[in-house]
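# nightly structure sweep
# worker-07 picked up a monomer target from the shared queue
# config: single-sequence mode, recycle default, output format = structure tokens
# input follows
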Amino acid sequence: MSQSITVSWSTVDAKYPEASVQVDKLPNHDLILRCQAGLRPDRAAFAELLRRYQSQVDKVLYHLAPDWADRADLAQEVWIRVYRNINRLQEPAKFRGWLSRIATNLFYDELRKRKRVMSPLSLDAPRLLEDGEMDWEIAGDTPGPEEELTTREFYEQLREAIADLPEVFRTTIVLREIEGMAYEEIAEITGVSLGTVKSRIARARSRLQAHLQNYLDS
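# output follows
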């Protein structure tokens, strides 16, 4: 996956002196409450929040737009939106889902601006076989040359399968299989019914299986 993206404090115009409390010792819930305490988030608390959750933003954007050269700019914009709107978050326990929703919505905003759909890359979508569901994860033991070639070929097939998914299916699969979100959370983020979410996931998995079946059989 791409390297972690650094966000400059100049972009959010944080002007508060660093608090004496060791924010890195605070639980997530208290850290978010501290960010919500003033008119603007406390600088030290927000920096710690960014440190803890930046990898999540990177991961969401990576799987939604792996070929976008400006993912770093998108990640920075996500945190700017978080900085400006964190006081609107009523339930700190739901911060993770709220953050993913901001990243996903920003992706959609950019997608509409560009008038085109990018081909995503996901190596974490589940694989369906006749006897059940298996993970895409491949064992980490040192592979031989033949196994390495097979692995590369498999990932190429997987890239093609993911690229062929309609964008709404792709987003749903990313939120479910990569982010591990509940169906209810996905429904809230995408603005569709729970039944639609379940249908999209099932249809996305079916398309992946159909695309990869010949390769898997061989």
